[in-house]
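Continuing the batch. This is chain 6 of the set; chains 1 through 5 are on the previous pages. Same settings as before, nothing changed between runs. Recording input and output for traceability.
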Amino acid sequence: MHPTTITVLWLAALLQGPLSQPHQDDSAAIAEISYELRPDSTTTAENFRRYLDSLDNIDLNSIQNGLEQYNTLIVAGNSALADTLADLFMTFFFATIAFHNDRMWENLPFVEQLHADDGRKDPALAPFYAALETNGLQLYSYGRIYYVDQQPEFLLHAFGPSLSAAFQNFLALRADEIRVGFSDHDSLVISFEEVAERTMKWERHLVNYPHDMIYPRAHFYYVTYLSTLLTGLSQSPVFGDDGILQLELIRFYDDMAKRHSDTLSGQIVKAFFESLVSAGFRWSPQVREFYELHGIRNMHKAQVPLR
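Output for chain 6:
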């Protein structure tokens, strides 16, 4: 029996923009990425999806249950299957994290209990902390806001070497970023130089692995960092209240464009810098048109990742 070819279609709204040439015609609106799963692997993936759907994400231990099932299903040498199962698990994992954050933020007495337990010595909270640790989660905070997110290297270690090189590289990049953090919703916790470094790392990943199933997730981070680089966040803007570009960014954009002139990101930053020069380094309609032309998101209004 011939292998079943699973073809994934991503519309232009997802994939076109920063990794497309600036004036690419809309006829190239759909990127087709194919990878092989044997018929028995297709059944395995569907069964795993159903198993994850049956788990109750109110129970944090469902994360470990999902991973145990993953480990029983992977087959040595079949990285396509491992990638597919890992991707399914990540969707479940992130949904579980979001569910518990929503519950926590709605439970004000619990949040106050966390604030009072500065040294994490409250025995009443010990089961909560233990459940986080066991299931690859960590309690983070900024200001008086607490939130749950993944431990930096949890997924990288949990899936092991069964994944493709692209998937492993994706998780390694994310581990470094999660460890440091990114924002506190409306302001950066890293410098614009670090945002630029992340942009270049994700561009290299996308160039090196252009046809892998992890591409859409990687592309999300590339667009997030490139857009942040050129718009800032609402409390870390690139333009001041007077509409003038932040002084330190003038040389920074110019230097980055020269340093990375052989990359797409460098070319986009160069074009952005040239549009700023023509506008006297002020916000202008040309800047808005530039954002639209190059698929740059306004990160002042976006749902910004915390890590």
